[in-house]
Specification:
alpha/beta; 23% strand; binds 5'-O-[(S)-ethoxy(hydroxy)phosphoryl]adenosine
């Protein structure tokens, strides 16, 4: 492999390879490809012994009896063990010098900062755990967290974990209807929220959305509200309580519960191929192990580092790489509440400069926005503290990768392009920065112990450079355990597409070096600005509007957001297309799901193209949305005139 650092634009992407810088590798946890290959070989030969050896890094109240019981597709990891993730993230650091180390450094969008040492965070978590107990939250109960990106969200998660309550974080950008579905699916007993949060200078009114939602959530008997923005709130007597008032009524003594390894830690909803979001269930020990180990090796985290993952905690990236992974490693984590372009497009760079951030983990959609805003914004700031960059959430285009390397990393920082999913719980395919030679656009190779591959639909391996389906052939510790309340769907969607093998839902190929190139979703899931949305969910939202008879939603490639959302809509007989209705439907989707699902484009049509069996031919719609014409095979189309009309409407 050759190293090419100049004249990159004219070189084929496959030719650009970047070995780890020698100084970086020398100081890294994993220092060479040879060392990494040894670990991979050890894990491949005997995965259970490998994971067991790694599990020694965690604190156990009682050691496990069996590493893995695999009754496909159900895995039990570290059976017989007793453990607590909040203990691992907090208490075990208190006996060391880290007690007074910054665990969380938080910056609000308006600019204020708050810092919690491990000792202080422990105190807050213990107190809130006692608040939960007083609210009658018991081991196994579900608690919904619908909050801005403020320290209290991490505190609430760790407090739930401390007493064995299962948290369900709902992203603050979801609407009250989406919140209702998620609360009811898991029968949450309690909701923790805030009056609001700041986003691009505006208040996101969370408590108002909760008030609306709780009209339809019979399982909820209390709501705890953090005062964040100070805007006036209606507090319902007997149901709503202020966080700060309850915290004054409890003490800071709350020992962590000794929980089974497989105790349910959290549910996190994600989009699938049907209208109903899937509650992905993660349990305790295996999840912690892999979040811990990937944070250590992939981000090469050291005690002296300041680490910043820009993800919202409402997504899995925030669970594993803002909260559990870094805190378990005793790291210092920077957390930021607001938008990257508030008050100016250099907010992130000012923060890196002011806080002297060392490790920075963000999403390709953010990187593309930075490129668009212009190099003058990062160029104004001293980014020399950075030593490692990461990306996650969608395929990164090689140009964006090169920009990130050059303009942010000054050709000095390795980049880790990490592939994983809500379902995998932790990073699964990734460079290890002191070991792996990277190439722009490739997530490179599987993490040790992850048996990833690319297969045909019927489970045959594909050759080098041939496209296929991304799979994982063996269970891994942080894998999802089921879909909450729907084990059948868990079996069917993940383990039956190719019998007995985990089906990720992504297309991929491996190159001649075995490197993985992720090509994106192959199902009806679209990735808008790194957010996973089911086309079926948006379609259901549209159809729930009285004027809509039928809707089909497809993705159109978008330079900035990765994909934009195009909806083809047929109307009920008594309604006619109009600009007003167009606006109304877009607003309706925002109300049903949230602004993240707002269609960019709504096209009214008399009919949708369907197969003889009645299935909407989204492929054709995708082509029309993207290029305005259809070149692909249309032999299965039932009514050719529909296509002609759509084409005509395009012209
Ligand atoms: C996509 C986010 C290419 C992929 C952690 C996956 C990626 C989905 C990458 C999961 C990457 C994530 N390269 N594609 N490095 N990382 N994806 O559940 O399509 O929100 O299936 O988890 O994002 O999205 P999710």
């Amino acid at each position: 492999m050759s190293t090419v650092t100049s004249n990159i634009e004219s070189v084929l992407q496959e030719e650009r390879h970047f070995p780890p810088p020698a100084e970086f590798a020398q100081r890294a946890h994993i220092k060479s490809m040879a060392e990494l290959e040894t670990l991979r070989a050890e894990a491949a030969a005997d995965p259970e012994s490998f994971w067991a050896r790694m599990a020694e890094e965690l604190h156990w109240f009682k050691r496990w009896d069996t590493v893995l019981k695999w009754d496909p597709p159900h895995a039990e990891w570290f059976g017989g063990g007793r453990i607590n993730i909040s203990y691992n993230c907090l208490d075990r650091h208190l006996a060391t010098w880290r007690r007074n180390k910054a665990a969380l450094i938080w910056e609000g969008e308006p600019g204020e900062t708050r810092t919690f040492t491990y000792q202080q965070l422990h105190t807050e978590v213990c107190k809130f755990a006692n608040v939960l107990k007083h609210a009658n939250v018991k081991r196994g109960d579900r608690v919904a967290l619908y909050m801005p990106l403020i320290p209290e969200l991490a505190i609430a998660m760790l407090a739930c974990a401390r007493i064995g309550a299962t948290h369900s974080v709902v992203f603050g950008g979801f609407s009250s209807s989406a919140l209702v579905d998620r609360i009811n699916d898991a029968s949450c007993k309690l909701v923790v929220t805030a009056d609001g949060g700041w986003r691009r200078g505006n208040e996101v009114k969370l408590k108002t959305a909760v008030d609306e939602a709780l009209k339809e959530c019979p399982s909820v008997n209390a709501c705890i509200v953090v005062r964040r923005t100070g805007s006036p709130q209606h507090m319902q007597e007997g149901r709503d309580f202020w966080w700060h008032e309850l915290m004054e009524t409890v003490d800071a003594n709350c020992p962590a519960e000794e929980l089974d390894s497989e105790h349910p830690l959290y549910i996190l909803y994600t989009s699938g191929t049907t209208g109903k979001p899937k509650g992905i269930l993660h349990t305790t020990a295996g999840y912690l192990l892999q979040a811990h180990l990937t944070t250590k090796w992939v981000f090469d985290i050291k005690d002296e580092d300041l680490y910043w993952c820009t993800a919202d905690i409402g997504w899995v990236t925030g669970h594993s790489y803002v909260v559990y992974g870094p805190l378990s490693n005793g790291a210092s984590v920077l957390m930021y509440e607001g938008a990257p372009n508030f008050p100016e497009p250099d907010r992130f760079w000012t923060m890196i400069e002011r806080h002297r951030v060392n490790i920075f983990y963000t999403a390709p959609t953010a990187i593309r926005a930075f490129i668009k805003w212009g190099d003058q914004w990062p160029s104004k700031h001293d980014l020399s503290s950075l030593r490692l960059l990461g990306t996650v959430g969608e395929p990164i285009n090689p140009e964006a990768w090169m920009w990130y390397r050059k303009v942010i990393g000054k050709e000095r920082c390795p980049i880790v392009d990490t592939w994983w999913q809500t379902e995998t719980g932790a990073i699964a395919i990734t460079p290890i920065p002191g070991a792996t030679t990277t190439t722009p656009g490739s997530a490179t190779l599987p993490f040790p112990g992850i048996d990833a591959d690319v297969m045909t639909r019927d489970g045959k391996p594909v050759g080098a450079n041939q496209g296929g389906y991304l799979v994982i052939k063996r269970p891994w510790p942080s894998m999802l355990r089921t879909i909450w309340g729907d084990d059948e769907r868990y079996k069917q969607q993940y383990w039956s597409q190719i019998e007995g093998i985990y089906f990720a839902g992504d297309g991929a190929r491996r190159d001649n070096d075995g490197y993985f190139w992720i090509m994106g979703r192959i199902d009806d899931v679209i990735n808008v600005s790194g957010h996973r949305l089911g086309t079926a969910e948006i379609e259901s939202a549209l159809v729930s509007h009285g004027a809509v008879a039928e809707a089909a939603v497809v993705a159109r490639p978008d330079d900035l957001k990765g994909s934009s959302i195009v909806a083809f809509v047929t109307l009920e007989g008594s309604h006619n297309p109009s600009d007003g209705l167009n606006q109304e439907l877009r607003a309706h989707v925002v109300k049903e799901i949230g602004a993240l699902a707002r269609p960019d484009d709504i096209r009214f049509t008399d009919a949708l193209p369907k197969t003889r069996s009645g299935k909407i031919m989204r492929r054709l719609l995708r082509e029309i949305a993207t290029s305005g014409t259809v070149a692909g095979d249309v032999t299965t189309l039932e009514d050719f005139s529909v296509l002609e009309k759509l084409r005509a409407e395009e012209e």
